[in-house]
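Bug report (template v2)

What were you trying to do?
Predict the complex of my protein with 2-acetamido-2-deoxy-beta-D-glucopyranose.

What happened?
Run completed; filing so the output is reviewed.

Input:
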Amino acid sequence: MKASYQRSTLLRVAYSIIAVIVLLNVVIYATNLKWLRKDFIPTNKGLYRQFSTEFSKENSPTTKTRILSSGSSFNSSHDVIEKRFEERLVNVVTMCERRGIDYKQNWEKLKNSGRITGNFVASYDHRAMICLVLKAGSQTWNNIFWRIRSPDQAKKYGFYEKAETSQRQAFYDLSLDKKMELLKDDDAVRIMSVRHPLARMISGWGNKFNKRYFYYLWFKQYPGMLRYPNKYSKWRGERDGYFMEFVDFAEYVADYGTVSLENLDQHFKPILSHCDPCKFPFNFITRLETFYTDARWITENKLNVSANVISPVNVINKSKDPALLIKDYFSQLKPDVIERILSIYKVDMETFGYTFNTTTLTAGGWEKETSLT
Ligand SMILES: *[C@@H]1O[C@H](CO)[C@@H](O)[C@H](O)[C@H]1NC(C)=O
Ligand SMILES: *[C@@H]1O[C@H](CO)[C@@H](O)[C@H](O)[C@H]1NC(C)=O
Ligand SMILES: *[C@@H]1O[C@H](CO)[C@@H](O)[C@H](O)[C@H]1NC(C)=O
Ligand SMILES: *[C@@H]1O[C@H](CO)[C@@H](O)[C@H](O)[C@H]1NC(C)=O
């Protein structure tokens, strides 16, 4: 009697444990699904919190000059920066011509149809729009637009995920007439942001394969990747924060990207597949390497807003020279892998004025921050 009583108690305990395990698994599975639905964009709450505090800090007078200290020298380099914007555009359209693309015709067609596709946000009141390129300052630009377009909401909530979806929706909801106005107006500001394509690739890898962000789910979307971790790399303790070493990832990109760009995730597709100046009449191209100079010039001179709308969050750590970063990572790769990766980003590099010397592994095409820092 006593023995069977003990047995049934044991059974009950065992069932409870199993029930708890099943429940936990359901919860974990549901959370995974939530991540999947969000297109793998992590909810980096810490970042957004930091952002909200930065926002209120920046708006207090004492820290007004914190981001860009040399206000007076800016004025003197005004023309230099304007000229540089022009040179970038000249290079862009020269490259369109060289590729046999009638960019003028494309622009006219678009101006008369207003049918804009792509990753845009806009502030109609500021007569400005931007095409966002992932891993090339898109978050910072998106945030600038959020602050100028919805200052009250930005102040209240800081920068958070909703900013992006609500801005995209607002652009989608903008009438065709207003879109055409923004396209035709010579004074309207039409921006796209770029970055050295190889630094962009390294940055994308560093971000997406970082174990902190749970990107193992990528392997579900790109099952071919599963064959690459530790395929070409040796175990290196110091990089033990990533799901895949750069060497292996580079081999994956070289193998899959040369077959079709469609094989690559948005973060690694060439810049031109996000925003194409041969099709769209951009009038400002900003570079991540000179982000403050470029963004400040545009906000103050074109958007007529204070440069305080530029957040320091997510802007690259200046002490990390992008040329050194690229050399560090690309020197790990086999020459044929480098060649194939370059073939993927060749048109990007030429269009936006970046270079890479395969003999010296030196990246180039840099411009200065122009007496702003
Ligand atoms: C800034 O530029 C404007 C126009 O070029 C000029 O009138 C003004 O004196 C300049 N201010 C400073 C502080 O250099
Ligand atoms: C720029 O903004 C200021 C104040 O915010 C305003 O007084 C001025 O008229 C604006 N200038 C232009 C050209 O819109
Ligand atoms: C920038 O990078 C350097 C070298 O990696 C590091 O020492 C420094 O703390 C970093 N600064 C910031 C603000 O992250
Ligand atoms: C790469 O750099 C080497 C050494 O500076 C130079 O001799 C060579 O011409 C460069 N190659 C290209 C394509 O610029």
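What did the reviewer find?
Residues 45-57+73-197+274-309 form one domain. The radius of gyration is 24 Å.
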